[in-house]
Design brief:
single chain, 270 residues, alpha/beta, Rossmann fold, 6-stranded parallel sheet, 3-stranded parallel sheet, 9 strands, 13% strand
Length: 270
């Protein structure tokens, strides 16, 4: 992706001139960053793989040849969270992401502050550099920084009891995000609370496999339910893992992916 992260379309046109098939795979709203480029690039593709329905909605008027393949994880790489819970007995709410995305915690910060007044928990932040978190008001919340380690990422996730995926409803970019953090938590059997933005609201069946929260009170209430009940965490986490296995795993989606590419090859060779 980084190779093509530029406003010009020169390299893509060279590929188009030298190959019989071009497949464009989008898992973010990158067309928002380079609108002029994508107005030209999308029609050049023989197939556009869209990470969610919102991306497909933008692509369809420009190219009818689309398929939705959600962001996926390999279930074998995400074992279920072992029992019992954390050794300290204090529930761990966690967030994993890049340093630049720490700002999203602002969307849940009010609810987290209220929850800290009501019950004990730790907020574990798995990120390379926690510096920008100082811009987020988490007064009264016990924050624990775990420096992100690619080799230990899944082990770091398995230390959590509840996952967070807050987004901003007013940001267009967030509408097109593909929910990887949410899928990672759920794949591990960790229940999550997420903003009902974009594909989050498709992945989460509220109260069944995780929870959705928009207001401070909703964040407090839904996180509180999970923090205060290990039994509920297990129940929701089991359903969450099942959802990922059935809908958001490589194992579940590879046959459709393979079939789409094979059909494309056959059409061209025919």
């Amino acid at each position: 992706r980084e190779i093509f992260d530029a406003p010009d379309i020169d390299m893509e046109r060279r590929f188009r001139a030298t190959t019989s098939r071009i497949v464009l795979d989008l898992d973010d709203g990158v067309f928002l960053r380079y609108p002029e480029k994508f107005e030209k690039l999308v029609p050049l593709a023989d197939l556009v793989i869209c990470g969610n329905p919102f991306i497909e909605e933008w692509i369809k008027p420009r190219n009818e040849n689309t398929i939705i393949i959600p962001t996926c994880v390999e279930m074998a790489q995400y074992p279920p969270k072992p029992e019992p819970g954390t050794s300290t007995g204090i529930p761990r709410i966690g967030w994993i992401g890049t340093t630049g995305n720490l700002r999203y915690l602002q969307a849940a910060s009010g609810g987290l502050r209220k929850l800290a007044e009501r019950t004990s928990f730790e907020l574990h932040i798995i990120v390379p550099d926690i510096g920008p978190l100082k811009e987020v008001d988490l007064s009264g919340v016990k924050v624990v920084h775990q420096p992100w380690d690619k080799r230990r990422e899944v082990d770091q996730l398995l230390q959590l009891d509840v996952g967070l995926m807050p987004l901003f409803e007013g940001e267009t970019w967030d509408k097109y995000k593909c929910g990887l953090k949410l899928i990672q938590y759920m794949a591990c059997g960790i229940p999550a609370v997420a903003s009902p933005v974009g594909v989050n609201a498709h992945i989460v069946e509220h109260g069944q496999n995780s929870f959705l929260a928009r207001t401070d009170d909703e964040w407090t209430e839904n996180l509180g339910q999970l923090v205060e009940s290990a039994e509920l965490r297990k129940e929701i986490g089991t359903a969450a893992r099942k959802t990922v296995a059935e809908k958001y795993s490589i194992e579940a989606n590879f046959p459709r992916y393979e079939q789409a590419l094979m059909q494309l090859c056959q059409q061209k060779s025919g």
